[in-house]
Amino acid sequence: MAFSPLLTSLDALSFEESNNNDKRQKIENLLEAKSLIFAEPWYKTVNSLHLWNASLIDVILISSPMGIMGLPFLTRRKGFSAKIYVTLASARLGQLMMEDLVSMHAEFRQFYGSKESNFPPWLRQEELEILPSVLKEILAGKDGVELGGWMPMYSAADVKDCMLKINSLNYAQEVCYNGTVVIKAFSSGVEIGSCNWILNGPKGDIAYLSSSCFFSAHAMAFDYRSLQGTSALIYSDFSSLSDTQDIEDGDNYTDPTSDNLLPPSFQDSDGFNLNSDEDLEEKEKLVFICSCAIECVKDGGSVLIPINRLGTILQLLEEMTTLLEASAMEVPVYIISSVAEELLTWLNIIPEWLCKQRQERLFSGELLFAHVKLLKEKKIHVVPNIHSHELLKNWQEPCIVFCPHWSLRMGPVVHLLRRWCGDPKSLLILEDMVNPELALLPFKPVAMKVLQCLFPSGIGLQKVQPLLKTLQPKTVLFPEDLRLKTNFSCEKSFLVLYYTETETLKVSRQKDSSEIKIAADLASQFYWKTFKKEGINVTRLKGKLLMENGRHHLFLDNDKKASSRNSSLLRCGLVDSNKLLAALSKMGINASMEHGTDDAGPTNVRIVHTEEPYKALIEIGNTSTAITTVDDNVASILFKAIDNILDEVC
Amino acid sequence: MAIETLVLGAGQEVGKSCVVVNINGKRIMFDCGMHMGYNDHRQFPDFSLISPSGDFNDALSCIIITHFHLDHVGALAYFTEVCGYGGPVYMTYPTKALSPLMLEDYRKVMVDRRGEEELFTSDHIAECMKKVIAVDLKQTVQVDEDLEIRAYYAGHVIGAAMFYVKVGDAEMVYTGDYNMTPDRHLGAAQIDRLRLDLLITESTYATTIRDSKYAREREFLKAIHKCVSSGGKVLIPTFALGRAQDQNSGKTIGTAREMNGLYYLDGIQFGNTSFFGSNSTNSELCILLEDYWERMNLKVPIYFSAGLTIQANMYYKMLIGWTSQKIKDTYSTHNAFDFKNVHKFERSMLDAPGPCVLFATPGMISGGFSLEVFKHWAPSENNLVTLPGYCLAGTVGHKLTSGKSTNIDIDPDTQIDVRCQIHQLAFSPHTDSKGIMDLVKFLSPKHVILVHGEKPKMDSLRERIHSELEIPCYNPANNETKCSSVDTPNSTLIDRNLTPELKVEDERVADGVLVMESNKKAKIVHRDEVLIMLDKKKQEV
């Protein structure tokens, strides 16, 4: 977004909330810090979410801690009643991040006041017109349709309320929605608590593959085996969308003082083979970044690391403190965040959500993360905010600081960036920033060094096909946006359908029929009719149908009311008029065939008259037989006679 | 079709829990415990009954361990490393973390203290643990294509779980030890309303109904508070793990015996606590005291004797997610297993003036440091000694609990004039008979098998389950096999199925016809479709 950070005393610098839009903007000269919007940031949610009726949503599945951040926008709406499923760890992490965000907004409230406006001035058309095109596009989208998606920030109460509506799960725990769909989450390896989903219904199963990562330093590994063999798989890992855009070689380390801010990319396109040494490559990147940081503090500069992905932060923290210790330097490390203390404590009590190596630490009686020890030794200082007494007391430069917010628009990072942006010795480490120039705009001119790094956060393009082959779904639903990047043309083992935003894609049902479990006591009461010629046994079903855990069950029904509602029997065969006459005469009924109808004329109707002792007319057709009489008793007697000579099916 | 249950241990007794169940062609071993009352072949289950040829890999699909007590896990390393079982073993995360400690402690006691031949080595334990797959609660784990298992919270000790097993249509639960009421550091057992063919449950307290634990805790705290507020000293003798040797005393008397004793405690009615008892008690009592100290703003020091290390505390801290809700809720501000008021005790403080509370080993005052302290403190009526609910005959603890005698002979030369107050503890993490009945009623399985209890009491519980709940119930002895057929129509199944907690009904009625064609799967069709299949025309009348 295009908001400005809060003004400081002197210059009217401001900022935006750089959005997580995937689109990259060409930066224009017009754009200056002053053009950013001076207001408490709003947030843009999913396109046209505001047009949906919230009460029509049945189930919400949240696949990652980040994925929960927009949920209060939805849960605070009237009529919202959907079941929300999230893994326990995602819920906890997500809640902490939301609380942190809310607390950072307090600063804006103090400055701008807390008046709530449904229609802030910056959303007005005339205001939009005078904005630089980059900002305009951020606000309105390419064709202006995204304007409606803007929402004011939620409150702490909204977050609390949202958390109360959540159903949290463990990995591989089965929950059943409404008796019909069994839902299970399996780790995706991207973040602690992140997951992919399997939905099991009577008509087949669906896998939902969100961003997944084969290499994971903390989170439990990507459990792709559990996603195997589904009838449909929704591929929803969009991380490779930006892949090609980030393949730029050049210096990993650029000096951003130059007017033209080239995003220093830290990413290589290769090395994504399934059994690659991604692990090693990651480690190398990590070591490189950390050694840059160490160099920097050796020079007397400070290092600022905005908190983005938890996984990266934890790795940087661990690696940096190790390097610091190795180089015997006494440089303080600060973590400034309202939730950091709770987060770090929590991380040490969740062995069930961590990768194998971390779990081994539990089994050998070691702490899961080293930071507990570092905290005790006062090598890391955790404080809730920048004004906290403890921080002021201990503050020492140069230092290494981890703090929110990655957008560089709010939180402690703004203050520290202002402090250090003019210092060429200091270093800012950004992770996967879509538009670093826009992000740094309010702080211009930036003399401090900027290092941008990118760690894989999804399935690399090269791995998509091998992975899908391993998973063996019958149908793959693939994003249209990624169509050009992958080639499924020679893919024979599964069908590929492409989906696009806001369009419903119909997938033909894989299973025509569903299974039913029939109770043993009911089955023992079946009355079977055998058709020898066809080799078929047939029985009529009578019982109570129940749907439970995604399966149909049929049980014996003792309810008299229901069973008395007997529907008519099904008969087949032809009524042989001669047989009927014989049968009738046996019963003492005198009947005669109407002449001229026995050889089945074009109408195929034969007519039989009975005279004694009852008077009636029987019309026999190929598919129906009608009895006409004045007396109900007579009708039922005749009915029995006909019934006897027909085959009863069931 | 039938579920075949072979009880290898804990049949009409408490000890070496081990049950092998054959369910729809899969054979699963639940628990692999040792009997601490024996030193001969009887201490392990008779594994030869599983496979006479000794090929256990083919004979078993998996092993499931419910918790880390030795009577549930004690024979595991022996079975996997010495007998050669190489298949998967499942247990919860805490059980996997704590079981090797238990096994190692036991091994040490056997070898170092008793001088017995070791039945398995440290390497065996390490190798054995590599075969273990840790599971989380409620996870549905697919052991193989047809066999799925799931752990439910059992509350008995940290990480204790009941296990649900499903193979095809057959479903069962093995409870292990469980507790139906929450206590201060663990929650109560929790399970879904499942449709079971068989429930195998422990029955330690088959006939006992206990009063509330809170009342007993309150009493305990009150006694301590009264003592310290009048300047007295409190001695809490507790059980150390073999690991926490009494280096001070140098006396090795009784630790192994104490393990035996404790082991019995675990099972039998006067039981004070679980076997790991040692730590679980220490932690539990300590949390109890800490909590009380905070609330009452007491400043009286609490000490742990130098020989008593709370080894397991490190694990407890990381596994706090498996404790009670209350402890979980406060972890971020204060980890309940970080004892703020607890200090180390130095021998020099023995005769220091002023009140204090001291945890010292061994638990039954059979020697060691607790006896030394006892000698100093017992003569004053201001002081208080708490004792476990059950003490082995011959120990000072036993003498204190059994008689009213004020003079106790420690050895031929020493006599102590006991004037201090005595308080007996009786906390047990097992469910009582009401809890067992509640669980059986809640699950309403088609069959119940009782294990882990005393025969006469089990018999009476069996009759109750049979008469009150109308569920066939058995309590087979060791090495007996019980078949529970699961294909007979059973009316209880139907009743239960029609009364789920929440049911949405509609009145719609559909017509369906079940068709079985030779060599094809049975299917249900609409009646009109039958005619097409039969190639016949419908005839309406």
Q: What features would you describe in this structure?
A:
Chain B: InterPro entries: Beta_Casp, INTS11-like_MBL-fold, MBL, Metallo-B-lactamas, RibonucZ/Hydroxyglut_hydro, RMMBL. Chain B: Residues 15-232 form the Metallo-beta-lactamase domain. Chain B: Residues 284-400 form the Beta-Casp domain. Chain B: One of its GO terms (biological process) is polar nucleus fusion. The complex is a heterodimer of chains A (650) and B (541). The two termini of chain A are 68 Å apart. Chain A is elongated and about 120 Å long. Chain A has 650 residues and is α/β, with parallel strands linked by helices. In chain A, helix 2 packs antiparallel against helix 5 and helix 18 (577-586) crosses helix 19. Among the domains of chain A are: 250-453, Rossmann fold (3-Layer(aba) Sandwich), CATH 3.40.50; 516-564, no CATH class; 571-648. Chain A has a seven-stranded mixed beta sheet with strand order 6-7-8-9-10-17-18, with no helix packed on it. In chain A, strands 13-12-14-11-15-16 form a six-stranded parallel beta sheet, with helices on both faces. Chain A has a four-stranded antiparallel beta sheet with strand order 25-26-27-28, covered by helices on one side. Chain B is an alpha/beta fold. Chain B folds into two domains: 2-209 and 429-493, Ribonuclease Z/Hydroxyacylglutathione hydrolase-like (Metallo-beta-lactamase, Chain A, 4-Layer Sandwich); 213-424, Rossmann fold, CATH 3.40.50.10890. Chain B has helices at 56-59, 70-73, 76-82, 93-113, 122-130, 213-229, 255-267, 277-296, 312-318, 325-329, 368-377, 396-402, 433-443, 455-469, 491-497, 527-534, and strands spanning 2-9, 18-23, 26-30, 62-64, 89-92, 132-135, 140-142, 147-153, 161-167, 170-174, 198-202, 233-237, 302-305, 342-345, 356-360, 384-387, 407-411, 414-417, 421-424, 447-451, 473-474, 480-485, 513-517, 523-525. Chain B has a seven-stranded mixed beta sheet with strand order 6-5-4-3-2-1-22. A seven-stranded mixed beta sheet of chain B has the order 7-8-9-10-11-20-21, covered by helices on one side. A six-stranded parallel beta sheet of chain B has the order 14-13-15-12-16-19, sandwiched between helices. In chain B, a hairpin with a 2-residue loop joins strand 9 (161-167) and strand 10 (170-174). The radius of gyration of chain B is 27 Å and the shape is elongated. Strand 21 (536-540) of chain A pairs antiparallel with strand 23 of chain B, so a sheet runs across the interface.
